[in-house]
Amino acid sequence: MKLSQFNIVSQDSDNKYIIYNTFSTGLVTLDKNSYEKVIINKDFADFSGLPYLLENGFVVDDDCDEIAKVEAVRSAIMKKTIIQNIVILTTTDCNARCYYCFENGINHVYMSKETADGIVEYCKKKYKDKRIAITWFGGEPLLNYEIIKYITYKLIEAGYELECHVTTNGSLVTDEMIDFFEKNYIRFSFQITIDAVNEEYGNVKRYIDIEPQKAYERTINNVIALIKHGVRMMIRVNFASSKIEHAKEVYKTIIDTLKVYDLTKVNIYMAPLSLPGDKEIISNFHGDLEHPFLQMVKLQRKEGFPLHDLYNEENEISLLSAYNLQPSAISCGMNLACRIVVNADGVLYKCHRLVGKREFSVGNVFDGEDETNRHLMFFHDVHITDDDCRKCDILPICQMGCSYSRFTYGKKQKCHRIRQVKSELVRLYYHALLEEHK
Ligand code: SF4
Ligand code: SF4
């Protein structure tokens, strides 16, 4: 017998150790003697808790290949058609000019009707189930609202039922648009990013169609209009690691502004940015502050995390997810063959962040995907090919990390945001569980 490579150990007090297994999600506490015997000395003889440790994957047989177990789970999920999802960039143009935009420097293209027709034909060939989930993306997708309507009507005409998610800066939303989504989609949701409030919001977003002093009011009024229509929505507060304090203030101010409305269909959350620069790497943070990700989790929990499932208010996303300890079969949805991204010019990619970087394209809507493309194959590969990842205790959560970060920044930014704070997250999770079961 041997210890699982997926155990995370967290010391809670002088005589209490918490062990969490990232593959099985089992949690156990050991006193100091048991911890030293089992975890430090790997001595399992006459240990009364051994059956529990075996059952929950903390201890495994000597010949157990844990990487093969991870790969088996990956394979089972990656071969399934879980959701037929197409991310469509209606345009790469935007009415804002955010400093951190990953599309900075790429050509501004508006999708043509010819490309839109190509998408409809591509969907007919690729998606055999009659339900498609579209993610409208940009640039600012609502700048090309006409093409959204065009594709929507064509797909409905082709017999598809549609759901969609609109990733937008929120500045161009109108009542007519909300009405359109309500009429034509079985269900739909919005994601709006707000990184600052009041005039500072205008200075960060640098809109070209409104003065900075008026920009925040326009967006927040649209957010309120969406809430009043009962639209499901995610409000995302991006943050650079070194600016965590500022992001926390923004997050609290937004909650404060919106809490007078019914927020049962709204999730407000913080998200770390992937930025170049050693000080901004969340998985390898070395500033003087408490780790930004830990600060984020603590604040969100205080303000009411876990989030609820946007389509089922009864269904809270689990405590495990709130502490980012939930295992996943894949590093992101883009590992699934049934998901693809289409740029405004009809070129296909496996991730929206790679759009416009032609070396990462995997085909186009007219000819389909090139199955031999090495980037496509990397996204769909069930094998754990990175030696560091094969030894990693959080592999079942991270699954080799974000491919975009890996391609763009190399090994430096490949790791999961919880890497440095995993033990503390386990401790916090354990106490939250105790609190819940009081
Ligand atoms: S590869 Fe990275 S950036 Fe792209 S969708 Fe997946 S997690 Fe997001
Ligand atoms: S990318 Fe880093 S954190 Fe993720 S599995 Fe690999 S080594 Fe672990």
Helices and strands, with pairings:
Blueprint: E1 2-3, E2 7-13, E3 16-21, E4 27-30, H1 32-40, H2 50-55, E5 59-60, H3 66-78, E6 85-89, H4 113-126, E7 131-137, H5 145-157, E8 161-168, H6 175-184, E9 187-193, H7 198-205, H8 212-228, E10 232-239, H9 244-258, E11 266-272, H10 292-302, E12 308-309, E13 312-316, H11 319-322, E14 339-342, E15 347-349, E16 363-364, E17 368-369, H12 374-380, H13 387-390, H14 395-398, H15 403-409, H16 422-436
Parallel strand pairs: 6-7, 6-14, 7-8, 8-9, 9-10, 10-11
Antiparallel strand pairs: 1-5, 2-3, 3-4, 12-13, 14-15, 15-16, 16-17
The structure holds iron/sulfur cluster (SF4) (2 copies).
One iron/sulfur cluster binds at residues 332, 334, 351, 353, 402-404.
Question: How would you characterize this protein structure?
Answer:
- The protein is built from 16 helices and 17 strands.
- It has a single domain, classed as Aldolase class I (TIM Barrel, Alpha-Beta Barrel).
- The chain is globular and about 70 Å long.
- The chain has a ten-stranded mixed β-sheet.
- Strand 7, helix 5 and strand 8 form a beta-alpha-beta unit.
- It has 438 residues and is of the alpha/beta class.
- Helices cover 36% and strands 18% of the residues.
- It binds iron/sulfur cluster (2 copies).
- One iron/sulfur cluster binds next to helix 15.
